[in-house]
Amino acid sequence: MLTFTPSGIYCPPGGFYIDPWKPVEKAVITHAHSDHARWGSNHYLCHPDTAPLLHLRLGPVDVQSLDWGEQLDINGVRVSLHPAGHIIGSSQVRVEHKGEVWVVSGDYKVVPDGISGPFEPVSCHHFITESTFGLPIYQWEDQEIIYQQIRQWVLDNQAAGYSSVLLAYSLGKAQRVISCLAPLQQPIYAHGAIANVQETLIQAGWNLTPVARVPVEPNRNQLKGSIVVAPPSADGSSWLKKFGPVKVAVCSGWMQVRGNARRRNVDAGFVLSDHADWNGLKTAVKATGASAVYVTHGFQAAFSRYLTEQGIEAQEIQTDYGTEEQE
């Protein structure tokens, strides 16, 4: 029922695409990250929490919203969205036609982060899954342990006279990092890209911690010892000079591998990911009960081979979706 085309994942009987990477007539969007929600399509369908983020990133596009679990008939194909737990508004797409059910996971994680909502397994015959961290080495620690490490790192930096710059993807990861830092009860400065997302979500009704935009020309001592959240693209830029002496940390699942922080030339790395780890991927696939699994971006070869060894028909699919830190 779903096919893989040069424009993206296509449903021929429904006449729509799911997270297309080229402009199409009808696009069903799992979430608002730029590799899954791209500009140029004529009509977009997504969860209501994703809609304001699409408008922020794509401008005045035509967006229709569909609540989780609500069904929509598109040319005889029943479409519904279900929580993916990746970021705010992230959804899996369930497609049913003539008794056959497919589910497209988008990006997901199975452990709740306190913001994005819990992942919901959806039974299906065919499951299209990501595999960003589809190797056994990627197994996440409890979120609160990582949060405590981040807060202590910030306090240690301040005691030594440094500002703390935490690099985190502007949509999803940044909201978690800001939530982590809120208990310190100090101003949290944010790069404009992150401030825009945070303000959009607050205006949409989310009870999130407000951030302060970094002044264009700050007072010499205004930002000394401050807490700053910025996207990975800010790393190594002259923009960091605003904060005086700084320590820089990357918040990413890639920090699970020893040496990645050193290779990135940053002072610290915190293992914080918006994607499922190895065990999470296995748990999600098993919960669907799918007899056929299609493995997309990430470690497709390793994860599909593992599934095949478990007696599940699995194959690798090449897509244009990005990795965790691509913006």
Automatic annotation (TrEMBL):
GO terms for molecular function: exonuclease activity; ligase activity. Keywords: Exonuclease, Hydrolase, Ligase, Nuclease. Signal peptide: none annotated. It comes from the Bacteria. It is an enzyme of class 3 (hydrolase). Its EC number is 3.1.-.-. This is Ligase-associated DNA damage response exonuclease.
